[in-house]
Design brief:
The complex is a heterodimer of chains A (about 400) and B (about 80).
Chain A (H helix, E strand, L loop, with lengths): L1 E5 L3 H7 L10 E3 L14 H5 L8 H7 L4 E3 L3 H16 L5 E3 L4 E5 L4 H4 L3 H12 L4 E5 L2 H10 L6 E2 L3 H4 L16 H7 L5 H6 L2 H19 L15 E11 L2 H15 L7 E12 L4 E12 L2 H12 L6 E14 L10 H20 L5 E5 L11 E5 L3
Chain B lengths: L5 E2 L4 E2 L2 E3 L5 E4 L2 E14 L7 E10 L4 E7 L5 E3 L2
Antiparallel strand pairs in B: 2-8, 3-4, 4-5, 5-6, 6-7, 7-8
The chains are: A alpha+beta (about 400), B mainly beta (about 80).
């Protein structure tokens, strides 16, 4: 049995400073700096006034003049969501991250840990979460998600298969990335319930909606793919507080410093980086966050910097603090053999080995190099900083 | 834990005897024989931590070249090298 946990309006609750704020009146997430002027998630009060996520700000304000726009805080949301996932994992579950606000796990193996029944697993989940959540269960991920969306905040719900899915709205297909865009198209054909979709011939749905249609049809019959649990890993991150709002070359120097520091961390243990997250606190308020997945696992500071600097260029405003977090790791970088017997490569290899030994003895700050942070600054101590030595 | 940024040439406090106009006469017990240059730096006036420094490049009796400044916001004398 798969268990789905839904935390409704999670990003809005975090940005507003807590769930209690959602009851104070019509709220909506303001667009992130530099993004399209569309409102994000909305509170129940705003929804009742006709405001919907993705609506233009002008239209939202016309419908609800008292609407309060809350600055989006993707960094705080990501941190809070990570804590939620860790709490779910603390009950022994292998958790699949379905995006902020949705997590699923297989309850089968947890029975022995928490008393044998599904209710006991749900109870343990609730007590670990310490947050009001909608919890549902079903034989597949989609059944569990539908069950969770129908559940009351204190009572779990179970959807056992296609029969119990038939009355559910097609808007629930939005929870699956493959079918996220279909509900609107289906609504144009008058298909509003999953039962209507399931009753259609599979070939006809495939002809009209393609691959997404087939996926939706399978979901409507209660069939879904296996869960893909995430691999819990120890977070490794580095933060740099900038003395004043930085942009341009200052930001590039800050990134260089962060990459060197991250690669010098002993927890990395020689592993390569597969994905990293770059985030910033903006001078004008709010936060910015970008996840970068490298084409191949990297351990070279220059190549990591090059990949990250392309994303850093998207920063919509000067930053007050910059954070770089390693998210996924690849295998340890192999000691590549040089094609030709070159003294330069041998020397570099020996230097790398010596630095590694030095750091093992004296910590990541043992071997440093000079970095020109703000070479043209009028304040002498801001011109040059020391950063961990990385080839 | 993220360590603080290690800056090169971070200012260190020094004991300075100043004369008329704030001109340094003695730095950490070394007599000053010449002032090579003096300049004012004002920065971050738009922020909550404005910075105002009166810099002096001086030569000690032993021939040493020093750059010292007086912090005009928080007070105190500091040297860069």
């Amino acid at each position: 049995m798969v268990v789905a946990v839904i935390l409704p309006r999670f990003p809005l609750a975090i940005a507003a400073g807590g769930r209690a704020a959602l009851a104070e009146g019509p709220l909506a997430l303001a667009p992130e700096p530099g993004r399209a002027p569309l409102v994000g998630e909305v509170s129940a009060a705003a929804e009742a006034l006709g405001v919907a996520p993705g609506m233009k700000i002008s239209e939202a304000l016309a419908r609800a003049p008292a609407l309060k726009l809350i600055a989006a805080d993707p960094v705080a949301v990501a941190d809070a969501w990570e804590k939620v996932l860790v709490r779910l994992e603390s009950v022994g579950a292998e958790v699949e991250d379905g995006g902020v606000g949705l997590a699923c796990f297989e309850a089968g193996g947890l029975g022995g840990l928490h008393g044998g029944s599904l209710d006991a697993v749900v109870k343990a989940t609730r007590s670990a979460l310490k947050l009001p959540a909608r919890i549902g269960a079903g034989p597949s991920r989609f059944c569990a998600v539908v069950a969770a969306s129908q559940a009351r905040s204190r009572r779990p719900s179970v959807v056992n298969g296609a029969d119990q899915l038939s009355g559910a709205p097609v808007t629930l297909l939005a929870h699956n990335p493959a079918t996220a865009k279909l509900p609107e198209q289906l609504a144009r054909f008058g298909i509003t319930a999953l039962g209507q979709l399931a009753a259609l011939p599979r070939d006809s749905v495939a002809d009209r909606f393609g691959r997404a249609g087939i996926a939706a049809w399978e979901l409507a019959h209660g069939n879904d793919g296996p869960l893909r649990p995430r691999r819990p890993s120890e977070p490794i991150d580095e933060t740099l507080t900038l003395t004043e709002s930085a942009s341009g070359p200052q930001l590039a120097s800050a990134l260089e410093l962060l990459v060197d520091r991250l690669l010098a961390r002993s927890e990395l243990g020689g592993r390569t980086l597969r994905a990293a997250t770059l985030s910033a606190h903006l001078a004008e308020g709010g936060t910015w966050r970008e996840r970068v997945v490298f084409r191949e696992p990297l351990s070279d500071a220059f190549r990591i910097r090059t990949a990250l600097s392309l994303r850093l260029a998207l920063l919509p405003a000067p930053a007050q603090a910059l954070r770089l977090a390693a998210e996924q790791f690849g295998p340890a970088a192999p000691a590549a053999e040089a094609l030709f017997d070159d003294a330069k490569f041998r020397r570099a290899g020996r230097l790398s080995e010596a630095i590694g030994q030095l750091r093992a003895l004296a910590g990541p700050q043992a071997a440093l190099r000079v970095l020109l942070a703000e070479p043209d600054s009028r304040i002498p101590e801001r011109r040059v900083v020391l950063t961990p030595y990385e080839r | 834990m993220t360590p603080a940024v290690r800056r090169v040439g971070a200012p260190r406090p020094v004991r300075v005897c100043a004369g008329a106009g704030g001109r340094p006469l003695e730095v950490d017990g070394s007599e000053i024989v010449a002032v090579r240059e003096s300049w004012l730096v004002e920065d971050r006036w738009w922020s909550e931590a404005p910075l105002r420094r009166r810099y002096w490049e001086v030569v000690t009796l032993a021939g040493g070249d020093l750059v010292v400044y007086r912090d005009l916001v928080g007070g105190g004398w500091f040297a860069h090298r």
